[in-house]
Write the structure tokens for this entry.
Amino acid sequence: MMKKVKKLLCALLIVLTAVTMLSGPFQVPVQAARTVTANKNANKAVNIKKRGTYRVLSKTKMNKDDYIRFTAPKKGKYTLTFSDFRKLKGYTPSERHLGSVYIYKNTKYGRSMQRVKTNGGKSSVLNMCSKAWYNTYTKGRKIKAASDLHTRYAKISLKKGETIYIKSFWTGGKHSYSLKIK
């Protein structure tokens, strides 16, 4: 009986060792989010030109807008996911702040706010909130286009080389957020 248990344990050990050795080459490295700093002047804003995940830093004062740009590398439909809005310094998870994100495109009439498909419908204003605000006031309710959300997506079609301007506003002043472009 004891010999059978030992044989089973040895066989299990060999299988686990083989799985560990074989899985190493198949692991996908995790790519850290690139950090970009937003600018209060849309024309001088950092221009993102690749899909990926970005940590956006806003160093503008409270109740001021800031911008980043995204230029489409090729024609297609892009999904931008905004999440994890928070103050840069002194952040506590219990803070309740609100903000919004707007997407603009240059048109023959000037820069125009875009109506995009988002959580709960279509909207030109993407209302954002801190995790604490979401948990207290929004969680469990029906999501509408105007709901305050901690994570929100926007879908937009772009031509190759077309640029959108992403404007953010946050009641907590200097802040950061995560932006994933797919």
